[in-house]
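Batch manifest line 252
LIGAND: 1,3-dihydroxyacetonephosphate
JOB: complex structure
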Amino acid sequence: MRTPIVAGNWKLYKTISEAVEFVSALRELAADVTGVEIVIAPPFTALSAVAKVLVGSNIRLAAQDVFREEKGAFTGEVSPVMLKDAGCGYVIIGHSERRGYFGETDASVNRKAKAAHIHGLKPILCVGEKLEDRNAGNTQSVVEAQVVKGISGFSEAEILSTAIAYEPVWAIGTGITARSDQAQEVHGFIRSLLSRIYSTDSAKQVRLQYGGSVNAANTAELMAQMDVDGVLVGGASLEVESFVNIVKAAHG
Ligand code: 13P
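JOB STATUS: finished
ARTIFACT:
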């Protein structure tokens, strides 16, 4: 019942021409893929050019961040309206790199996610514990706080159009992927939280992605877990062949 979602987060990589070249190739290579939602998150500068290449394709566009306000004197920020205008359907919010390097808090993440919903952008809301949290046995309490605060005030309709990405910080860019049972344990926990806040029926419809050193070799096993509905891919989304192989592995 949950359509798998495979998203590539390019982070601070690719010029406009590199991005256009990638998505032109991806469009061809993924043309016959059905039953998987494919999402690409280029840097802001490439969004509009990529959107033009993706018109009429089965690939959706995401931004990597958004500001909470629609407009105003906020030098350097990009609003949800601007992202919609550029062709985005999704936006990644609260990535651990935003939290770690740019001072994002659960409160700022929540405001951004609400702003995204108001303007019809679907948030991919990132949560995940640091290694010290896990080692101290605090994975669930950390993830619970991030989820509960991150989705605070979301209506039922809003939670249904949100994807939650569990990205353990120790697995990001390290080559150390969470074991599939570790991913499932946290995903199951997040779904149980959603059941408690909304309803079991709604919780069953929310897509939960895993991120952290995902590649074509480990995608199928992660996706085979009951509550893993997709992946959020960093490094392995930068080469088109590697990304297509992940999409195909997610398809099963
Ligand atoms: P890597 O796939 O490079 O570990 O990055 C994961 C990530 O941060 C995706 O948002």
